[in-house]
Amino acid sequence: MRSIFFAVLVAAPGPVMAQAAPSAPLVNEDVGVPVFPYDITDRPYKVLGEVKAGVRKATVFSKSPSQEKIYKELWERARKLGADAVVKAQYGDAHVTAFSWGKANATGVAVKFLSADAVPAPVAAAGN
């Protein structure tokens, strides 16, 4: 008798509660941080400002900084501004200066994503 009661309890459907789908964090799979060389067009955002970073080589014989290292440095600076991502990231080859064996400069745009309800509705054109 107990096993029949247990089977009925397990099989009986309970109330289904709707849960909001968690918003997946946006991350560049290649480097592990939310820094992208292109613009993001599938979600609205507010521009927080331009971020700049310079990554130096340790010695003249060291390899040039990798894209991963450069993007991580851009992300650190954007995160301090409260950004959710960096878009339009660009960087150049490492060049020797009077103070460094080689330095790669990078820039990007720090952005904060807007929620769907914070986006203003499009305005209809007048005169139709």
Question: Would you kindly provide a written description of the structure presented here, covering whatever features stand out?
Answer:
- With 128 residues, the chain is α+β, with helices and mostly antiparallel strands.
- It has a domain at 28-115: 2-Layer Sandwich (Translation Initiation Factor IF3).
- The protein has two helices and four strands, in the order H-E-H-E-E-E.
- It has helices at 2-11, 67-80, and strands spanning 45-56, 85-91, 95-97, 100-113.
- It is elongated.
- The relative contact order is 0.22.
- The model is unreliable at 3-22 (pLDDT under 50).
CATH topology title of the domain at 28-115: Translation Initiation Factor IF3
Structural class: alpha+beta
List the secondary-structure elements in sequence, H or E.
HEHEEE
Uncertain segments are 3-22
The geometry reads as: elongated
Q: What is the CATH architecture annotation of the domain at 28-115?
A: 2-Layer Sandwich
User: CATH top level of the domain at 28-115?
Assistant: Alpha Beta
Protein name: Heavy metal-binding domain-containing protein
Keywords: Signal
Organism: Sphingobium ummariense RL-3
Signal peptide: 1-18
